[in-house]
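# nightly structure sweep
# worker-07 picked up a monomer target from the shared queue
# config: single-sequence mode, recycle default, output format = structure tokens
# input follows
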Amino acid sequence: MNPSRWKREHRIAFAIAVVVGVIFGIITGYFAFAISRGASGAPGVKYWLQYFPLDVLGWAVIGGACGGLVVYARRLLS
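# output follows
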């Protein structure tokens, strides 16, 4: 099951799923960061993006991988 041999529609669906996964990963990462800092001391998104870029990147990669794996698994099972 080589993704480079997929039809164009499936490749577009895969790319959209990865992008949506990255967005949800970043949002989830920020909420996890804010919860870990406590309700009173939760800094803004700008602070998180500026001072914790590796955390942001990590959450983005995890989210994108999850989104891509969902589409890949769906293609395997069809």
